[in-house]
Amino acid sequence: LLAVAGANAGASDLSAGITMGRKSDFKSTCSTEHVFADDLTMGATIKNNAIDTIYAKFHESFGDIIINMRPKDSKVTGSIDMKSGDARCVASFDKDELSFLTKVALTSDKMKFGPLSAVMKPTYDAINQLLDLDVCTNIEGADVTMSMSQRKNTASTMTAIYKFNNGVKVTASAAANADMSLKCEGDYNGHKLDGTMAMQGLKTPGLKLGWAKGHGVKGKASTAVKADMSQIEGSLTAKLGNFGDWTTTLTTPYSDVKDTKFALSTKFDV
After folding, report:
1. How far apart are CA 35 and CA 59, in angstroms?
2. Is 99 helix (H, G, I), strand (E, B) or coil?
3. What region does 254 belong to: left with phi over 0, alpha with psi -120 to 50, or beta?
4. Please, is 237 exposed, middle or buried when counting C-beta atoms within 10 Å of its C-beta (0-12, 13-18, 19+)?
5. Going by C-beta distance under 8 Å and a sequence separation of 6 or more, which residues neighbour residue 261?
């Protein structure tokens, strides 16, 4: 591998690289960028002696516009980023797409709803035909996000995320086809929590629970418990320095305690 890099004093930067393999595969890249004015920056990328991409960045009072053109296939893409206070709108476009605009994401200023203030974040993805709407607020120090998602030919879903100020996050999700899930995760006073319950209609829900905690200085020992609808597993790990890391695991199925399994494993750094 041979690499060459250089810089041209002023507003333009130039870099180049050469890669050679066992099969004498010769590749080179070169990029340059120049500031023509306070509101216009242009650049290009050259690969294997051919122009790969030409781009222009326009800096306007309302925001930034980026246009990319690929001469090889006349591909033109770009984005428009507009800002006003805390509000923001980012739109991506592709001249070959039927809708031209491929994605639009909005973020509103804080809006007052009685004692609460919230930020609206609607997003539309034309390529995947996906519409999302997020409403973000804060309730007594906890961050709360309510989301609605609708994709063409699929059931719409609603999700609520509640982040407690103690590091625990609860996520509840429900779909129009009666699929529901509830997840709790986080690190509370050194206790790592992870629990999930999923349910399809009136079927028996699936449940998974997890707990772990470190002990001693720098967590040289730790215990963990995992449980689902069929078995429970407990483990103990000890880091013994030059003697390696040792883990004991005990797995017991609910159907028959006689099928309990014990495992002992270790890992050494060589």
Report:
1. 11
2. coil
3. alpha
4. buried
5. 249, 250, 251, 252
Task: Let me know if 139 is exposed, middle or buried by CB neighbors in 10 A (0-12, 13-18, 19+).
Answer: exposed
pLDDT tens sequence for the chain (270 residues): 333 333 333 344 454 444 455 555 566 778 888 888 889 999 998 887 788 999 999 998 889 999 999 999 999 999 999 988 889 999 999 999 888 999 999 999 888 877 888 999 999 999 888 999 999 998 877 889 999 998 888 888 999 999 988 889 999 999 888 889 999 999 988 889 999 999 887 777 889 999 999 887 766 899 999 999 999 999 999 988 778 889 999 999 999 988 999 999 887 666
Closest CA to 59 of 44, 82, 40, 77: 40
Using CA atoms, how far apart are residues 13 and 151, in angstroms rounded to an integer?
43
Distance from chain centroid for Cα 265? 33
Joined together, the tokens standing for residue 66 give 């980026």
> What's the longest Cα–Cα distance across the chain?
78
Burial class (CB in 10 A: 0-12, 13-18, 19+), 73: exposed
Q: Take residue 36 and report the two structure tokens written for it.
A: 């023509």
d(CA 168, CA 190): 11
Residues 86, 110 contacting (CB under 8 angstroms): yes
Check: CB of residue 182 under 8 Å from CB of residue 201: no
Q: Is residue 146 a contact partner of residue 166, using CB atoms and an 8 Å limit? A: no
Length of the chain: 270
